[in-house]
Amino acid sequence: MTPPSKEDFSLVANTIRCLSVDGVQAANSGHPGLPMGMADVAAVLWLKHLKQCAANPKWMDRDRFVLSGGHGSMLLYSLLHLSGYKLSMDELKRFRQMDSATPGHPEYGHTEGVEVTTGPLGQGIANAVGMALAERMLAARFNTAEQPPLVDHRTYVFCGDGDLMEGISHEACSLAGHLQLDRLVLFYDSNRITIEGHTSLAVSDDAKKRFQAYNWHVLEIDGHDYDQIDGAIRRALRLTGKPVCIICKTVIGKGSPNKADSHEVHGAPLGAEEVKLTKRALAFPEDQQFHVPQQVYQLFEERAGKTLRLHNKWARQVKGLQESDPVKAALWRQHINDELPADLASLLPTFDKPMATRSVSGLVMNALAKALPQLVGGSADLAPSTMTFLKGEASVTPAAYAGRNFHFGIREHAMAAMMNGMAVHGGFRVFGSTFFVFSDYCRPSIRLAALMQLPVIYVFTHDSFYVGEDGPTHEPVEHIAALRCIPGMTIIRPSDPTETGAAWMAALQHKSGPVALLLTRQNMNVIDRTVYPAASNLEKGAYTLWQNGAGTPELTIMATGSEVEIALTAAKQLTTTNVRVVSMPSWELFAAQPQEYRDSVLDPQCTKRLAVEAGCSFGWERYLGSHGTAITLDRFGASAPFKDLVLAFGFTVDNVLAKAKSLL
Fold this sequence. Notes:
CATH class of the largest domain: Alpha Beta
Low-confidence stretches: none
Strand content: 5-15%
CATH topology of the largest domain: Rossmann fold
Number of helices: 24
Distance between the termini: 84 Å
Number of domains: 3
Helix content: 40-55%
Mean pLDDT: 98
Strand order of the largest sheet: 10-9-11-12-14-13
Largest sheet: 6 strands, parallel
CATH superfamily of the largest domain: Thiamin diphosphate (ThDP)-binding fold, Pyr/PP domains
Structural class: alpha/beta
Number of strands: 20
């Protein structure tokens, strides 16, 4: 097969430019500048180097391509269409329209071939670092010197000036360089233009020195010279020991006679007349929209044939693994499919003394991890406090990737985004941890995890004002409401050590979105499950923990986490009232239950309801109705011993009793 020529690359690049221009013009909305500027680099990468297979978009050993500047999505959609993915020309014509497969920014799970949802700048870079780490970790587990590598692919990223201005890019690229992720190749689209104008308005960084300081290889090329592009990619494939940044000097909107190298082409259609002039300059028919020369389809078909042969060879290797090494084959399936043993719950430890749920979580996690080799994770430099270290397991360190413990450093932004990258890559179930108050730093990535329905697990400890002396900067108040607002997010705040074990089981079994476990710093008493309902009821989100009578109660007290104990103690003192105490660790799991079950827990006939939770009241009105009230915290905390704060904020049995009596 004859390799693609410069003329082939040019034709493909100009096809991408014209498809992108037409898509944005038809939608009267979008960003043509990036696709036009990076079309030459994309043509060389996709037509000659990228290992992917439209016949099996989920091929585990495919190269990953991440468009971090998701606003340039017409570049990716054009490439996916030309490469044979299930993305028709009609869908390109429906760019940015309702229910199309071509939304304004690429969405994972929505469009075949899109590896990750990108949009907020910098996220894609950090996602790609997670993907590259997952590749190295799988390779460390499954590749041997005696056999062809089972895991042998690269992660390629396109990013721009905006991506590198966002702080998350610093966190992620710093860690990637430290970990020596040499299968990561970053193409920096250095066109020196942002929405407001030239980048000199806001930044004067030396990108080359910056990445060299991160411990990256750095190459510089003319992003429109095919020989330089190809040479840089081939060199990047040979370089080892560090990730590679290829600084591509490009012209935004290249091909547009009047708008190239201008901020005018960044985020607006060219306009009908400029579209015609652009096509004329590129020697494309001015009177045709979404035109693809047949030669371009043929070039991509030839490339697809080559990569399909690579795919089939790999598939035979995996099939042969079942015969040659059935133990490793079973381990591979467990990793790739995130298989949970049927008897996993039998590994849960038992508890008979007061413990902080963060400490319980650490014991539970370590017990379950023995049967879950795919479970990996770490913290933002807080493992001794969040108890998220897998004991007896190695740490992931530079060029040593067989471990299961991550040291993300003090990089919450990158940690959460890298978790997303590992999750979309596949092969691992990932957890990450920090203090709950710092979930603010993770929120953009949490939101994207929910949008992508990724089963990542956040272990957020120090979950309330009980943090005490550290004061209001470290005492979460509005954070639980903020997470509950995210569609598809599941929050679990267990009430005692046993419920914490059930919370981990629920989190591992929940595979359609992210889960946050909210855990205490202070000790919690063990609820005697020989007297009270089993902690496994947590999987339903809420359940009746205790009631001192039959039928519809006169008062229902709902509580989460550490407040369940005081709710239960107070309720037992209301001896002349039919009171029900509901442990409500997860609104989201409860909302997923049938209406009949929900009514059996929160009887609609009982309108006198009291909620107790050490967070803000926002949202509780959905359960309290017009006759209920709440003991919550709608102010910032304070610096004092937590026992003093308990009294000051009214989280006492006496206050619960007073509120209950006022309702009755």
